[in-house]
Design a protein that fits this description.
single chain, alpha+beta, Bacteriocin As-48, Chain A, 3-stranded antiparallel sheet, 3 helices, 5 strands
């Protein structure tokens, strides 16, 4: 038994389905190479912000997958999705995981590498 709001799946069968983040714009135009570098830096340092490494690994896999697979990944990892775009999640122990939009989708002002 747990508290009424502790489960990802509610008694009426509704659960938060993940979706793509809304379009967003980086403060300045950014190349794909720069975006990949930002993502790599985030994922390399994310476990140092707290939480469990296996949850960070699951969130990375979900961020890099299509929506159907991403949903299966977060469900199987026991991730509690607060924001349906995966920007705010929790694990079963209550640790908070915040993901920046740049690891979840591309900005509207992405420019070609030259």
């Amino acid at each position: 038994m747990g508290c009424a709001g502790s489960s990802q799946s509610k008694a009426d069968g509704t659960e938060k389905k993940i979706r793509k983040p809304k379009p967003w714009k980086h403060p300045q135009p950014i190349t794909r190479t720069q975006l990949i570098q930002l993502r790599d830096e985030f994922w390399d340092t994310a476990p140092h912000y707290g939480g469990r490494k296996e949850i960070w690994d699951a969130l990375r896999a979900a961020a890099e997958a299509d929506l159907t697979l991403a949903q299966a990944i977060v469900d199987s990892a026991g991730v509690i999705v607060q924001s349906s775009d995966l920007t705010v999640c929790y694990d079963e122990r209550g640790a908070k995981y915040e993901l920046p939009k740049y690891v979840l989708s591309e900005p509207t002002n992405l420019i070609r590498d030259d």
